[in-house]
Structures are given as C-alpha cells and as structure tokens.
Write a structure and sequence with these properties.
The chain has 86 residues and is mainly α. It has 3 helices and no strands. Helix 2 (44-63) packs antiparallel against helix 3. The N and C termini lie far apart (54 Å).
Length: 86
C-alpha cells in the first residue's frame, strides 16, 4: 500500500485509467469478434456494417495508445480482406 499522499493519488489515478483501458479494449475485441462471426456465417451485409464499427473502435483504441499503430492496421486489413473474400 502507498504511504505518501501523492502515491495514494497515483494509485487512484492508475486504477481509473486501467478501468478505462480495459473498457476500450473489450469494446474493440467484441466488435472484431462480431465481425468475424458474420464472416463465418457468410452474411456479407451485416459483416460490412460491423466492419465499420470495428474499424472505428480499433482507431479509438489506437488513439488512446491501447493498440500500437501497426497492430491496428494489421487487424483492420485482415478483417477487410476476410469480408472481401466472401
């Protein structure tokens, strides 16, 4: 446990930031999973709709430094390629 007041405040801040990071990470992962689910069901229209939201959430995670830039672009291109193969 932190002893000084500044350390206590830093702990509170890091807990708050961690909760936000986990929330953003879960939201983009959920969007990616739903997109993959529609791809596996060969539902191209719903997959395209989910691709838009997945890309948006991946971009937001990248903006907040939860994902690295190259990782985000790799995930987006793989999703788009999977939909184009349908």
């Amino acid at each position: 446990m932190p002893n000084t007041t500044s350390a206590k405040k830093a702990l509170r801040q890091s807990k708050r930031k961690n909760a936000m990071n986990v929330r953003i990470k879960n939201s983009y992962k959920k969007a990616v999973k739903e997109t993959v689910k529609f791809v596996s069901e060969n539902d191209k229209e719903k997959a395209k709709e989910m691709l838009k939201t997945a890309m948006k959430k991946i971009d937001k995670a990248t903006k907040k430094n939860i994902l690295k830039k190259n990782t985000a672009s790799r995930k987006k291109s793989r999703l788009a390629r999977a939909i184009n193969k349908l």
